[in-house]
Amino acid sequence: MYERELSSWRNLMEDGTQCLGEEQYINAEKYYSQALILAHQFSVPELTAFTLRLLATVRVRLGYLELAEEGFQSALLICQGIQNAKGMSEAWAGLASVSVKRGKFKAAADEYEQAIAIYPATSPPLRLGMLYADLGQVHATLAEWNKARDAYSEAQEICRANGFLKGEGELDVLIGELCFRQKKKEEASKSLQHACQVFFEISDIVALTNALQYLALMYFEQNKMRLAFECQQKAVALCLRFDKKHVFSESCFFLSRIEQSLDLLEEAKYYLELSVQFYPEQDIELALRYQGMANLLHLTADYAKAELYYLKALSLYESLGDELHIGEVCEALVVLKESREKGDEGRESKEEPGIQAKMSGGFPLEALVRLAEFYEERRNYRNALECYWRALEMGRDAQITTNWIEARVQKVSKQIRRKRSAY
Length: 423
Hints:
Elements: H1 3-21, H2 25-39, H3 45-62, H4 65-81, H5 85-101, H6 105-117, H7 125-141, H8 145-161, H9 165-181, H10 185-201, H11 205-221, H12 225-239, H13 245-261, H14 265-278, H15 284-299, H16 303-320, H17 323-342, H18 345-349, H19 355-362, H20 365-377, H21 381-397, H22 403-422
Helix pairs in contact: 1-2, 2-3, 3-4, 3-5, 4-5, 5-6, 6-7, 7-8, 8-9, 9-10, 10-11, 11-12, 12-13, 13-14, 14-15, 15-16, 16-17, 16-20, 20-21, 21-22
C-alpha cells in the first residue's frame, strides 16, 4: 500500500536535495512542496516532519522566514508527539537559523543549545559538531568570546575524534578569527598555520588559499610584511588552479598592497594591473584599483600612464556619482600636472607610443570635461583650457556635437586674456 506514492515521494525528495545542494532554491522548494503533499497521505509522521524541515530549510535560503518558522514549528510539534529526539533537535536548529536571519542572536543561541541538549548519542556525531560550530558563530557575533571558544573547541574535538580533517581545519580558521578579534594575534596565527597544514594535507586548494590569505591579513595587521608577502604570494599562485576571476583579482590586489609596503613598486604595479585585468565588475572596487594603479605610476614617474588610469578612475566615479572620490582624483591630477611640469623632461619624451591615441579613443568625454571644470572652478584657467581643447579634439574625432565645448573654450580663453590684461 502506498508503494507507488512512497517511491514518488522519495524521488521528489532526492530531486529537491540535489537542487538544494546546487543552490537552486526555487526548484528545491517546488520539489519539497510536492513531496509534502504526498507525505500527508502516509500514516508516518516522521516522513512528514522530515519533509517539513527540508522545505523550511529551503525557505530560509529564499528569505521566506515566516513560512520557514511555521514549517520548523510544525515539525517540532510532530517530533515531540512521537518522542523523536533527532527530529526535535533538527527542528530547534532550524528555528535557530531563522532567528539568525532575523538578527535575533540571543534567541538563536538558546535554540541551538536546545538542539544540542536533546541531540541523541546514537545519531551521527559530526552533525552535533556542526551544531556546536553554529552555536560558536552566534556567540562570536554577540562578542561572547569564552562561550564561542568553548563551542568551537567542542566542535573541533568531535571532528578530530571522527577523523574529519576538513572540519578540524575550518574550526582552526574560526578559532583564529576569534582570537584575532580578541587581539590575541600570536594565538590566532598559530590556529591559522595549523589550518594551512590540515588543508595542505588533504589537498583542499580552495580552503588552503583562503586560510593563507587570512594568515597574510593577520601578518599585515601586525606589520609583519615579509611573512604577509610569503603567505599572499602562495595564495595568488594557488588561485591560478581554480577558475574564479573575482578571487584572483582580490588576491592580486592584496599582494600589491603588501608589496607597496615593502617598497617593491614594480612588482606591486604588476599585480595591481593583473587585479584590474581580472576584476569582473564595473563598480567602486574597479575604480579604486584604477586609482591605486595611477598612484603607483605617479610614484614611479610614469606620468602619461598615471594620467590614463586617473581618467579611467574619474570616469567610473562619475558614472557612480561618487563625489568624494571624484574630488580625490581631481586633486591627484593637479598634483600629477605639477609633477610633470617639474619632473624629468627626458622621461616625458620616452612616453609609450600610442598613448595619445588611446587617450583620444579610450575615455568618455565627461571625464575630461569634469577635470576641466575642476581646474576652472579653482581659477586654474590654463589647465582648464588644455583639458577643454583635448575634449574638443576627442569630440571631433568621435563626430559628435562640440558646440558646447567650443563655447567653454571661448569662455576660458576670455578669462585668460582678462588675467593677462590685468597685469
